[in-house]
């Protein structure tokens, strides 16, 4: 790696085509959280407090981004095993020191409680997992040529990184978050150079498995078999997804109200701050219903287009870096954000079953925001260091 004299100032080295969409989404998030908190019993009618707390999380996240962008590809490569190991330790620790009161309400053991602050370690594990996968794939491709045998070895290495996380999330009863890690691994596999002779059958097999599971949930015999892997509430979520009008007072209550809220916005929305439909947990999981009710179809589509623009800009930065390790990192980040957006919006409109997955940069909560912002920081570091360093080849480090 050869150091190149930097002739641009700090301002020019920031990828504003990525930073600005994130800031716009943050503004939408503060708006949505404010009006969602007005009727939320957990905030006791104090929306200002909810907004100030979220604004504080944004400030902390921006500070973390400014630290992350100082790390170049070589440094990120070196710290990957350490942050991955630290993340695993946090996932183990939360099984013993989880938030007891929250576990009683949700059944999940996936949150720490530090005084007035709750923290979900699986969210910060996501960027750590991305770094580790990028390192594993990069090292493998530098040492071995792509053959069917070597490609299967690489898949085995990726699964080996994923399995400890999957086991710990299973013990925490957090299936929704596990899906995010699977999506990240799937995205990295797609760009890792593995033969399509392996990838196509593997993805078809996953598709068949998913369809089979959904079918089994609808039968008593299938539920008996799946009860070893899934919780009863997850069966109810799939059933309510298939027919949300079947149980609007219990399992499908939240989904039904979300659909009503979004539908009531029609084309142009009810107007700024005019929310007439109460939706539980509206500031976090169901935050998209605030946008749909306030700004209608036009506003809802505008948010999707803003996410699309953000992802396109991240892809462009990836191609500009011309560095293999960075490309795996960015793919993992893109898949993380893309899956969050697809799942959150999809569950809000009954396109997908309900899960506790937040909408990136908009939903209330600090853990998810920090995890996503660390990912953005790694993307920003690509441009930040692009003119500082030249790599004679992808594997200089």
Compact summary:
With 397 residues, the protein is an all-alpha fold. Helix content is 69%, strand content 3%.
How are the SSEs placed, and which strands pair?
Elements: E1 2-3, H1 10-13, H2 16-38, H3 47-68, H4 73-93, H5 100-106, E2 112-114, E3 117-119, H6 121-143, H7 148-172, H8 175-191, H9 196-217, H10 220-226, H11 232-242, H12 253-264, H13 288-321, H14 324-348, H15 366-384, E4 389-390
Helix pairs in contact: 2-3, 2-13, 3-15, 4-6, 6-7, 6-8, 6-14, 6-15, 7-8, 8-14, 9-10, 12-13, 13-14, 13-15, 14-15
Can you offer a commentary on this structure?
With 397 residues, the chain is mostly helical. It has helices at residues 10-13, 16-38, 47-68, 73-93, 100-106, 121-143, 148-172, 175-191, 196-217, 220-226, 232-242, 253-264, 288-321, 324-348, 366-384; strands spanning 2-3, 112-114, 117-119, 389-390. Helix 9 (196-217) crosses helix 10 and helix 12 crosses helix 13 (288-321). The longest helix has 34 residues, at 288-321. The protein starts with a strand and ends in a 7-residue tail after the last strand. Residues 1-8 and 388-395 have low confidence and may be disordered.
